[in-house]
Each structure stands twice: as C-alpha cells, then as structure tokens.
Amino acid sequence: MDSRKLKIAVLTGAGVSAESGLSTFRGNNGLWGEYDPQEVASIEGWRREPELVLSFYNGLRKQLAKVKPNAAHLAIAEMEKDFSVTVITQNVDNLHERAGSTWVLHLHGEATKVRPENGVYDRNFSEAEVIDIGYEEVNLGDKAPNGSQLRPHIVFFGEAVPKMERAIDIVDEADIMLIVGTSLNVYPAAGLYRYARADAPVYLIDPEEVAVRDPRITHIRALASRGMEIFLERLRRK
Ligand code: OAD
C-alpha cells in the first residue's frame, strides 16, 4: 500500500494541549470548574457581560503566548511527511499551526482572532472581517473598521458551528480517523467520527474514559504524546 495516499483526519480537543500546560475544560482543574461557561463562553454571556468575556479571552491569549507545542502536536504535524493529514480542532489555541501542521480547521474559532459583532445572532460574518490580533488584549470600546465592537472569533455556546459541513466532508473522505484528547461531550464535534467511512478505522487517544462508547473506536489509553507514539507504531505495522 502506498501510504502517501492515505488520508488521516485528526480531531483534537483540549487534551492534546494539556502537556503544553494549557488547562482542559472538564475534569480535575478544568477551566469549567473555575469559570461558568454560560458566563464566559456563551452568546447570552456575551450579550450580558461582554467585559467579562473579553477579559477571559485576554487571559487565555496571555497564557497562549507563554506555552509551546508539545510532542503530540509535533507528531501530528510530522505525519504530513507520509500522509495527507487534516486537523480538525476544537481548540482555540494555535499550537497545531506552531507545530507545523498546514491544514488546520478550527471548529470553535481562534483565540488569537477577533471580528466585529454583527447583529443579534452574529451568523453572517465574512472571513475577510476576521482580524488576527496575536496575543494583544481587546477591551470594551475597541472597534472594528466598520465601527462595531470587536468580539472574540469564537463559536460561543448557543451559536451555530459554521465549519461543521467542511469538517464532515474531511472525515467522510478520510481513510483513517484519529481523535486526540477530547471528552466527546460537546456536539456537533463529538458526533463527527460517525461520518467516517465504515471501513475507516477510528482511533481515540485519551488517558480517560470518554462520553462516547462505540465498538468501532479503538481506544489508546495514554497521554497524547505517548498515545501518538503507539498510534504511529500501529500504522507502521499495517
Ligand atoms: P474537555 O476538557 O471536555 O476534555 C479533555 C479531554 O482530554 C478529556 O477526555 C481528558 O481525559 C483528556 N486529556 C487530559 N489530559 C490529556 C493528555 N495529556 N493527553 C490526552 N488527553 C488528555 O475538552 P474538549 O473535549 O476539547 O468549547 O472540550 C470540547 C469543547 O468544550 C471545547 O472546544 C470548548 C469546551 O466548552 C468551546 O469553548 C466552544
């Protein structure tokens, strides 16, 4: 088999960045133990208290400036030498890109980007309006060129996931699906693997049990860095 032709769809969650020092959302020391997602990561929270939401993402950006990609991000990027790899990440950090991955789809948005808030549901933004601010702060009163308040380029709870259809296509076209470090609690991302072809193996790397139990998922119970080594050994044996 010519492995160069194999397509791998990788779905990642907060666990892939845990070894870089970023907190996950759920579980011990999870961010959602410290913050209420309905306050800092929902569209209602943004309408109610935008200052709090901006400060949460300012904090996340500051943290992001200090961390580095870990061995798992690097191993995922390295796979591009031999496979056609597309990363679908629920993470709003930029560690996959900084590790060298060239095809990264951010399902839940990006912490290092902002956009003008448009209307009540904010659905119809165009990519051209998105501004890369790196690790800068954004505060109430900071306006986009069109005069509206800048908001985080994040898919808040209560908002649609605009890149979901593209993500489904990527999974549907893949020969292998690899899931790393997500508790599979948040839909629609958690159901993505179901779009994998019936003959496409689905691997999951996570040290813990996850919310979805499905016999078609091969669970590698390990931290992301070690799990990637095990996954790559299995691929080489095929
Ligand atoms: P969670 O915090 O729900 O799950 C993280 C998963 O990573 C858990 O299953 C952990 O067992 C696992 N994990 C922890 N350390 C790990 C390590 N070193 N290596 C591998 N796995 C490890 O995070 P997500 O599933 O990413 O959405 O959460 C999904 C979405 O919920 C996020 O994108 C975010 C959140 O609310 C938004 O903010 C819109």
Output the strand order for the largest sheet: 3-2-1-7-8-9
What is the mean predicted local confidence, pLDDT? 94
Helical amount? 25-40%
Unreliable stretches: none
Structural class: alpha/beta
Taking all Cα atoms into account, the compactness measure Rg is 18 Å
What is the ordering of alpha helices and beta strands?
Answer: EHHHHHEHEEEEHEEEH
**What form results from the Cα inertia axes?**
globular
Bound molecules: 2'-O-acetyl adenosine-5-diphosphoribose
Largest sheet: 6 strands, parallel
Measured between the Cα atoms of the first and last residue, the distance is: 9 Å
Any overview of this molecule?
The protein is α/β, with parallel strands linked by helices and 238 residues long. The protein contains eight helices and nine strands. α5 (71-78) packs parallel to α8. The protein is globular. It binds 2'-O-acetyl adenosine-5-diphosphoribose. Residues 13-15, 18-19, 24-27, 30, 37, 41, 90, 108, 155, 181-183, 185-186, 205-208, 210, 223-224 line the site of 2'-O-acetyl adenosine-5-diphosphoribose.
